[in-house]
Amino acid sequence: MALCTAEDEDAMTATITGQQAAFADADFARARSFASDSFRSYVTVREFEALIEREYGFLLSDPAVEVEKCAQVESVGEVQVRVGGSTPRTMIYRLVRERGTWAIDGARITSAPSGIAA
User: What's the pTM value of the predicted model, to 2 decimals?
Assistant: First the structure.
């Protein structure tokens, strides 16, 4: 993967922070709208809400998100972010370009405060 262009990095970051704002409002339908068509075809709003609450509950408090790295190959991008809050974490978001915009296709925690991969 090559480094993201500034324009694509800004657009991917806007997608991630847009979803984050929806989480802060507890608007899971809007948060899910930032996901890829493929993701949305397999995960209902209720399933998405349960997944976020179970695995990514720390995102619900609207922590600061700082982009550390961004890479892409054509219509696929990966953005490494540092998520602040009382327990900072590093996450990798996978995004795909759909209909001229970037959509989140998945996310994973790559490190926990202890340094042990989560």
Answer: 0.90
